[in-house]
Specification:
Helix 6 (167-172) links the parallel strand 4 (153-158) and strand 5 (177-181). The protein is α/β, with parallel strands linked by helices. The protein folds into two domains: 31-329, Alpha-Beta Barrel (TIM Barrel); 355-483, Dinitrogenase iron-molybdenum cofactor biosynthesis domain (Nucleotidyltransferase, domain 5). Helix 2 runs parallel beside helix 12 and helix 4 (103-116) runs parallel beside helix 5 (135-148). The chain has helices at 2-8, 16-25, 44-50, 103-116, 135-148, 167-172, 187-190, 206-226, 246-255, 275-279, 286-296, 339-364, 425-435, 449-457, 471-483; strands at residues 65-68, 77-78, 120-125, 153-158, 177-181, 196-199, 202-205, 230-237, 260-265, 302-303, 314-316, 375-379, 396-403, 406-414, 441-443, 461-463. Bound molecules: S-adenosylmethionine (SAM) and iron/sulfur cluster (SF4) (2 copies). Residues 75, 81-82, 94-95, 126-127, 129-130, 157-159, 181, 234, 236, 264, 266-267, 308, 311 line the site of S-adenosylmethionine. Its cofactor is [4Fe-4S] cluster. Residues 61-312 form the Radical SAM core domain. It comes from Afifella marina DSM 2698. InterPro entries: Aldolase_TIM, Di-Nase_FeMo-co_biosynth, DiNase_FeMo-co_biosyn_sf, MoaA_NifB_PqqE_Fe-S-bd_CS, Nase_CF_NifB, NifB_C, rSAM, rSAM_sf.
Length: 492
């Protein structure tokens, strides 16, 4: 299985033939092995549209990467949580960029990344301002990239105010995925989030501003759905302002046909210079986010794996390779070579087959279901769907809920890396313990005795007994060993 682990590291796979041979031996050499038609709750046609999009499919994010190009700096509204002037190269947060690009530079960067990052499947424009308000640059970038790399999926993110003006062009350009940020459907609540909007040549404030924004967001959503474009709705969860209200937002966007709802925690820090940062508005804890997400289950399908990326992020979700591709590092001229991306895709098709097969096998291998607890398990992974990262190297943990009913992904939690070869391990460890609130066990590829004992003292077990297992299968095996009951169903 060593070759598969090298895919799990998500560096460019170098020995596709070896990997296929290994899979053939295990009786799973074809991409049709397992459920290649996708999850049971999705039609095969829909699966085809999302299966390579790391944000629209939780399963795809183990294998595929996105990149954002920061060509849209201007914005037509103000949100109380956003300040695009504050920038830090080490920070992963929406609206943050190291350099703004013009469409020429963006095309060059996309080609350079596509040549180097074979996992790349999506090009997104998420600001740092608004992709629709800065439409001329968004459009030119997408049109030119599509000519060079026609199979790259195009994706944009907008507050929705200018969206209805461009829906027809969006459809003509085959942009299949659009994200609208909708934080409230009640203008009174919206007024606490948006101090002003700029619309129809003038600035609007207060409830009137939110009413206009809301009407335009809903109109844009309806127009996109009518053209069969997949819409993801982002909502920033702001405790005490719109947290309880997001249940209503979820219902409303479901009625209008949104495909996904992404409830994201407010990131708030006085140093960012935002209104909320300065007034001390806090963001929710991971457990508060989970509790809200659990309440809206049954409404619009939830995205739980969003990493709240920078507007110039590059790579697999959770890793950011943006600093490797700044303009000053790119060659004078670039030309697209599809070979590595093509090879990678064929390898992933095979590996996915095996992953699906392990789940099918686990379903078929049901043990008697007995009373056993519902637990949260945190997994250290570098991608590829495996438990393949050292505890001390994790910058985030993927969290799964496990019970006799199954294994379900519930979110990720970012942490400061424990081992950094310097001071600060104490602080990092305390942060990890706080972030892992509610988690009973950590599964990782390796963990030292010292951190393991310290975790145990605060009631968190840690184990590397399932190193390099597929994540869900590893969790299921761990659970079966601990509680004598195999989870009944494995869901991604
Ligand atoms: C930078 S925006 C770009 C797209 C567009 N301007 C918008 O707001 O939808 C990308 C996403 O990040 C969210 N965002 C920006 N600042 C945030 C913060 N401080 N905390 C949480 N989410 C934030 C926005 O609400 C939006 O959903
Ligand atoms: S709409 Fe987007 S870019 Fe504009 S202020 Fe809000 S979060 Fe920032
Ligand atoms: S911010 Fe969320 S939805 Fe956007 S690219 Fe990152 S993970 Fe995907």
């Amino acid at each position: 299985m060593a070759q598969l682990i090298s895919l799990g590291s998500l560096k460019a796979p170098t020995s596709a033939a070896k990997m296929r041979a290994s899979l053939a031996k295990s009786g799973c050499a074809s991409s049709s092995c397992g459920s290649s038609d996708g999850p049971a709750d999705m039609s095969p046609e829909m699966w085809e549209r999302v299966k390579d999009h790391p944000c629209y499919s939780e399963e795809a994010h183990h294998y595929f990467a996105r990149m954002h190009v920061a060509v849209a700096p201007a914005c037509n509204i103000q949100c109380n949580y956003c300040n695009r002037k504050y920038d830090c190269a080490n920070e992963s947060r929406p609206g943050v960029v190291s350099e703004r690009l013009d469409p020429d530079q963006a095309v060059k960067k996309v080609i350079a990344v596509a040549n180097e990052v074979p996992q790349l499947s999506v090009l997104g424009i998420a600001g740092p301002g608004d992709a629709c308000y800065d439409w001329r640059k968004t459009k030119e970038t997408f049109e030119r990239v599509s000519k060079e790399i026609p199979d790259l999926k195009l994706c944009l993110s907008t507050n929705g105010l200018a969206l209805p003006d461009y829906v027809d062009e969006i459809a003509d350009m085959a942009i299949d995925h659009v994200t609208i940020t909708i934080n409230a459907i009640d203008p009174e609540i919206g007024a606490k989030i948006y101090p002003w909007v700029f619309y129809d040549h003038r600035r609007w404030t207060g409830v009137e501003a939110s009413r206009i924004l809301l009407e335009r967001q809903m109109l844009g959503l309806e127009m996109l759905v009518a053209r069969d474009i997949l819409v993801k709705v982002n909502s920033v969860m702001i405790p005490g302002i719109n947290d309880a209200h997001l249940i209503e937002v979820n219902k409303a966007v479901k009625e209008k046909g949104a495909f996904l709802h992404n409830i994201m925690p407010l990131i708030s820090d006085p140093a960012h210079g935002t209104h909320f940062g300065l007034t001390g508005q806090r963001g929710p804890t991971p457990m508060e986010v989970k509790a809200l997400q659990d309440k809206v289950e049954g409404g619009t399908k939830l995205m739980r794996h969003c990493r709240q990326c920078r507007a110039d992020a590059v790579g697999i979700l959770g890793e950011d390779r943006g600093q490797e591709f700044t303009m000053d590092q790119l060659p004078e001229t670039v030309s697209y070579d599809p070979a590595r991306r093509e090879e990678y895709r064929s390898v992933v098709a095979t590996v996915r087959g095996e992953h699906a097969a392990t789940k099918e096998a686990a379903k078929a291998d049901l043990a008697e279901v007995r009373d056993a607890p519902v637990l949260l398990v945190a997994v250290a992974t570098r991608g590829g769907g495996r438990i393949n990262l050292h505890f001390g190297h994790a910058q985030e943990f993927q969290v799964f809920e496990v019970s006799p009913g199954g294994v379900t992904f519930v979110g990720h939690r970012k942490v400061e890396q424990y081992c950094h070869g310097g001071h600060g391990e104490e602080r990092a460890f305390d942060g990890i313990v706080e972030t892992l609130q509610g988690v009973s066990t950590v599964l990782c590829a390796k963990i030292g005795e010292a951190p393991k004992d310290r975790l145990e003292k605060v009631g968190i077990k840690a184990s590397d007994a399932h190193a390099f297992d597929w994540i869900e299968a590893g969790i299921a095996a761990w659970y079966a060993a601990e509680y004598g009951t195999q989870p009944a169903m494995l869901t991604a």
